[in-house]
Design a protein that fits this description.
The protein is α/β, with parallel strands linked by helices. It has one domain: FAD/NAD(P)-binding domain (3-Layer(bba) Sandwich), CATH 3.50.50.60. 27% of the residues lie in helices and 25% in strands. It has 9 helices and 18 strands. The strands form 3 sheets. Strands 1, 2, 8, 9, 10, 11, 17 and 18 form an 8-stranded mixed β-sheet that branches. A 7-stranded mixed β-sheet has the order 6-5-13-14-15-12-16, with helices on both faces. The chain has a 3-stranded antiparallel β-sheet with strand order 3-7-4. A hairpin with a 5-residue loop joins strand 5 and strand 6. Helix 1 runs parallel beside helix 3 and helix 1 packs parallel to helix 6. The longest helix is centred in the last third of the chain and has 21 residues. The protein is globular. The protein starts with a strand and ends in a 10-residue tail after the last helix.
């Protein structure tokens, strides 16, 4: 690829970056996406689990059926491994063949007119009269940092930095199966996942199992192998080999950063801290925020008026979830969950967190 002029250069070909690029391309503007990975399906840092709202995003129109697997309920396990099942009418989670999903999204972006530059890392930007020049890439009016929790764009331009993080590790076992492939199995345990949860789910490729915990100086990484030795028989997972792939990454959990907008520079998705402080769900939020940033840039390019952070919607306040995050960080003990797991208040709170509204108890077999 040769250097060129673009209206917008997006750094990062994740969910937020691709959603942003799609909106700009849809507006008839020239947009380039750069990513240091040479393969969008390689070195992933996401679980790839989609909530129902995310699958309704226009970015997933015509998503091939073999890429996602529907999950109709959540089985929530207390530290003592007692469980309750949570459902909501018409609500589904969707696990994915995440490498295939990211490659497909990249192909869709190219079809939409996005100039994709893989194997191209962001290192520096030189100011021009009307925007920025990225050596080896070209010039642009606006630059978008959608390059994750450790955003190089945010650091380079001295914008808001993500400080509060979870550390997640996930194993994948190709071809494996669960006794209940229709359930997302979630485990609360201060021992295995202080500050967050463990999870096991069926995917189109096999089974994914992971842990995330609050990132603290000197803390060891999540011990997924020991966690699985403890819980795998409960879900019918037979572990007889090493995982076929391992993912690891940092997840923002402190809410949106400030500032998110600089001189012709904007942050989107994880780089902007737009991730639920409690559930760590960043895909749906990133899709919405990335698309909103793209629309704001389209308007700015038409009007000549730079966008302001206050004009970019799709950032929830998350006041209640930020309070729950504080409680989970400072007041997490195992015994209340063991004691109260089947109580109506805990069920209602879990339903609100997982389904954003009250669910219903599953009918008896």
């Amino acid at each position: 690829m040769h250097n060129g002029n673009h209206d917008v250069i997006v750094v990062g070909a994740g969910f937020a970056g691709l959603a942003c690029a799609h909106e700009i391309a849809k507006a008839g503007r020239r947009v380039c996406v750069i990513d240091r990975k040479r393969d969008l399906g390689g070195r992933l840092h996401t679980t790839g689990i989609l909530v129902e709202e995310a699958l309704a995003n226009p970015l997933f129109t015509d998503l091939p059926a073999g890429i996602h697997h529907s999950v109709s309920s959540v089985k929530l396990y207390a530290p003592g491994l007692e469980s309750i099942e949570l459902t909501a009418p018409g609500y589904r989670f969707h696990t994915t063949d995440t490498p295939a999903l990211m490659r497909w999204l990249g192909e869709q972006a190219v079809t939409a007119g996005v100039d994709m530059r893989l194997g191209c890392a962001f290192r520096e930007a030189q100011a021009t009269a009307h925007g920025w020049h990225l050596p080896g890439v070209g010039q642009c009016r606006y630059l978008v940092g959608a390059d994750g929790a450790r955003s190089r764009v945010a650091a380079y331009f001295e914008l808001g930095r993500v400080r509060d993080l979870l550390h997640g590790v996930e194993y994948e076992y190709d071809g494996a199966g669960l006794r209940r492939p229709d359930a997302l199995h979630c485990f609360i345990s201060r021992r295995w996942a202080p500050g967050y949860i463990g999870w096991i789910a069926q995917t189109p490729r096999g089974v994914q199992a992971g842990l995330a915990q609050r990132l603290r100086p000197g803390a060891p990484p999540p011990d997924v192998a020991a966690f699985l030795a403890h819980v795998a028989p409960l879900v019918g997972l037979s572990i007889v080999r090493k995982p076929d792939s391992i993912r690891a990454g940092l997840i923002p959990c402190g809410g949106p950063v400030r500032p998110r907008v600089g001189r012709h520079v904007l942050l989107a998705g994880d780089a902007a801290g737009v991730v639920s402080p409690v559930t760590a769900g960043g895909i749906h939020s990133g899709l919405r925020h990335g698309a909103e940033v793209g629309r704001a840039l389209g308007q700015a390019l038409d009007s000549g008026i730079p966008p302001q952070a206050s004009s970019i919607r799709a950032i929830p306040a998350w006041r209640r979830k930020r309070a729950l995050r504080w409680a989970f960080d400072h007041l997490q003990w195992d015994w209340p969950f063991d004691l109260l797991l089947k109580s109506p208040p805990l069920r209602r709170m879990a339903e609100q967190i997982y389904f954003h509204r009250r669910g219903r108890a599953p009918s008896s077999p």
